[in-house]
UniProtKB/TrEMBL annotation:
Family: Belongs to the peptidase S10 family.
Taxonomic superkingdom: Eukaryota
Coiled coil spans: none
E.C. numbers: 3.4.16.-
Keyword Lipoprotein carried by entry: no
Protein name: Carboxypeptidase
BP term (GO), one: proteolysis
Localization, UniProt: Secreted
GO molecular function: serine-type carboxypeptidase activity
Gene Ontology CC annotation, any one: extracellular region
Species annotation: Hibiscus syriacus
Signal peptide: 1-18
Length: 495
């Protein structure tokens, strides 16, 4: 039952010929749609893996690939990025870390140190979702990194609200097949999933910490969005389990934060349709039909009649909302033929065509050389075959909340993995409220709302869509700064 809807979303571009889903930032979602659709195919992704945190623990002493990283940090240092603006006051690095030497699988990273007092700032790992989308091209270049790409596709402008103002930020393209990350064994591109993504990311981190040994004992926070609602809790669980091994660098993991995160198939899908109705994008009749015929909680109770009816009403709901950007329901949509190549970007003006500019920029030969990347056709989302994915990461989130800081945040104008989905997911954890729902402030305005549960903090970011920092960079920086400092986002400035 849970699968039914999302493949309809996949069809959306065909219903609306002008729909810009693949041109801009919908790519993370295209891949998610494909994965969800695969659940009802004759060869669905395996979901039994990762069922419990304990499952990961039984091999925590098995050897992990590590090799000498001497001299590689200096080799990875970026001189300057083509088209970079003046006044850059922080160091940048990019390169590959081998995660499997035979026949050679390597993950690409981009690392920006903090512009202020980097030695005393934590390390933040950022992961985009998909599955199969680039944390560098989307996360760094369109959301929270220090630069964004101008509409000429050749020059960069500063993001004054970059997260490296408050942390040292590491962007990882994972798994192999995504962005510049590669494998010499092509079956790595067709047989990959949540499990290998977490394992490879862990091997990456261990070796990266050898390359940058000054970060070995630094506080680490893992953050991400969308399908990273899988990656982040899974990697965090894996690290904690591996930390129990006696033979390994202990990674100093302090917390995770996941934004507009795909956490649970059933809950996220129910949240999507409730959001469409409560945001005046769907009719009463459609919503009543969905509530009557769709059983989000159980596949077993569903008869064929109700499946058909549920399908019908969900399809109707997607048609009724019209040609809008579901990932930021009040935002403009990208019109490629209206791009003016000579206009300078400004981080405070949301650019629906940002993905187009990034794709041009990252495919320039001089840019790939400056990044120490292998010459390749770069794209935002890789065509990777996803063969394992549990339908929920709530079991891991529940366990993590007992030992590290867990924040779940949500841009409240995203209709694809909306705030309702996040709230239903948290509600199902049945955690007691410790700090009541309240507004938090950024630049003297309400930045969003926060509620503190036992072990989990939930915050909204007001007015932000799916890729939260590309819509509301200042607000999300205020929020993430609080997260890194272990306190709730600030209250009213006068109080
Ligand atoms: C533990 O580390 C040592 C030295 O690096 C290595 O020789 C040994 O194989 C490791 N043992 C395991 C179980 O990984
Ligand atoms: C490529 O990967 C597959 C699946 O893991 C494995 O069976 C095969 O041996 C690998 N090939 C090489 C050349 O390593
Ligand atoms: C649903 O349809 C399938 C195939 O169309 C059939 O095998 C199955 O028995 C039906 N189930 C019910 C409850 O009608
Ligand atoms: C896209 O931009 C072109 C050129 O400005 C314009 O003619 C066209 O109407 C626009 N299309 C949409 C759907 O806005």
């Amino acid at each position: 039952m849970r699968i039914i809807v999302i493949w309809l979303l996949l069809l959306l571009p065909y219903y609306f010929p002008g729909y810009p889903i693949s041109s801009c930032m919908g790519n993370q979602i295209d891949n998610l749609n494909r994965l969800i659709a695969a659940r009802r195919s004759s060869n669905p992704p395996r979901s039994e893996l990762w069922a419990r945190l304990d499952d990961l623990g039984n091999s925590h002493d098995s050897p992990v690939f590590e090799r000498s990283q001497k001299g590689l940090m200096q080799a990875d240092k970026i001189d300057t990025l083509p088209g970079q603006p003046g006044g850059v006051d922080f160091d940048q690095y990019a390169g590959y870390v081998t995660v499997d030497p035979v026949p050679d699988r390597a993950l690409f990273y981009y690392f920006v140190e903090s512009s202020v007092d980097s030695l005393n700032k934590p390390l933040v790992l950022w992961l985009n979702g998909g599955p199969g989308c680039s944390s560098f091209g989307i996360g760094a270049m369109q959301e929270l990194g220090p630069f964004r790409v101008n509409s000429d596709g050749k020059t960069l402008y500063r993001n004054e609200y970059a997260w490296n103002t408050v942390a040292n930020v590491l962007f990882l393209e994972s798994p192999a097949g995504v962005g510049f990350s590669y494998s010499k064994n092509s079956s790595d591109y067709t047989d990959v999933g949540d499990k290998r993504t977490a394992e490879d990311s862990y091997v990456f981190l261990l070796n990266w910490l050898e390359r940058f040994p000054q970060y070995k004992t630094r506080d680490l926070f893992i953050t991400g969005e969308s399908y990273a609602g899988h990656y982040v809790p899974q990697l965090a669980s894996y690290i904690l389990s591996r930390n129990k091994g006696t033979n390994q660098t202990v990674i100093n993991l302090k917390g995770i934060a996941i934004g507009n995160a795909w956490i649970d198939d059933d809950i996220c899908t129910k949240g999507l349709f409730d959001y469409l109705w409560t945001h005046a994008l769907n009719s009463d009749e459609t919503n009543e039909g969905i509530n009557k015929y769709c059983d989000f909680a159980s596949e077993n109770l569903v008869t064929n009649i109700t499946v058909e009816q549920c399908d019908k009403y969900q399809n109707q709901g997607l048609m009724e909302m019209g040609d809008i950007d579901l990932y930021g329901i009040y935002a403009p949509i990208c019109n490629r033929s209206a791009i003016k190549p000579d206009s300078n970007g400004n981080v405070l003006n949301f650019d629906p065509c940002a993905g187009v500019h990034v794709e041009s920029y990252l495919n320039l030969a001089e840019v790939q050389a400056a990044l120490h990347a292998k010459a390749t056709k770069w794209s935002g989302c890789g065509d990777v075959g996803w063969t394992d994915s549990p339908s929920s990461t709530l079991p891991q989130i529940r366990e993590l909340a007992k030992v590290i800081s867990v924040w779940i945040y949500s841009g409240d104008t995203d209709g694809r993995v909306p705030v309702t989905s996040s709230r239903y997911a948290i509600k199902s954890l049945q955690l007691p409220v410790e700090t009541a729902w309240q507004p938090w402030y950024s630049d003297s305005e309400v930045g969003g709302y926060v509620v503190g549960y036992k072990g989990v903090v939930f915050t909204t970011v007001r007015g932000a869509g799916h890729t939260v920092p590309s819509y509301k960079p200042a607000r999300v920086l205020t929020m993430i700064t609080s997260f890194l400092q272990g306190k709730l986002p600030p209250g009213h400035p006068s109080s």
